[in-house]
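Async update (no meeting this week)

Hi team, since we skipped the sync, here's where things stand on the single-chain job. The sequence we agreed to prioritize is pasted below, unchanged from the tracker. I ran it this morning and attached the output directly underneath so nobody has to dig for it. Comments welcome in thread, and please keep replies under the output.
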Amino acid sequence: RRPPRSTLFPYTTLFRSMNNKNKGFTLIELLVVIAIIGILASVVLASLNSARKKGADAAVKANLSNIRPQAEIVYDNASPNSYAVVCTDSTVIKALASIKSASGATPICNNSSSAWAASSILKSVSGKNWCVDSTGISAERSSALGSATVCPAS
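Output:
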């Protein structure tokens, strides 16, 4: 005669009793998991917001830097050579529109026959502007360009 199954496999009764319990998670367990997911999601969203602002700043800087070679083309094509129409050049106007789209603020572009400058606020650094001009400056400034054709000293 064969011994009872429970003596051959002593753990089967344990597993059988575990399987008979109600399956699923308690309400508390579900609430804890949802709270943890919510906290992690808020941390990720805060990081994304910072990255988004830095990306907008990179777009502003790139577009302002792209104005410089176009300004030199405008200067070379003018007779006599002049920067007088840099800010009204169609390529520069497109770059300024892209800057406005990225920064959310209207960029400043000033020109005269001998110089030009363009500036826009930065999103990630409050109160700071990025400025480029015909002297070769491409830098962050704390004061706005105003009506000058050269970037401010600070």
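Quick observations from my side:
The longest helix spans residues 27-77.
The first strand starts at residue 108 and ends at 111.
Reply here if anything looks off.
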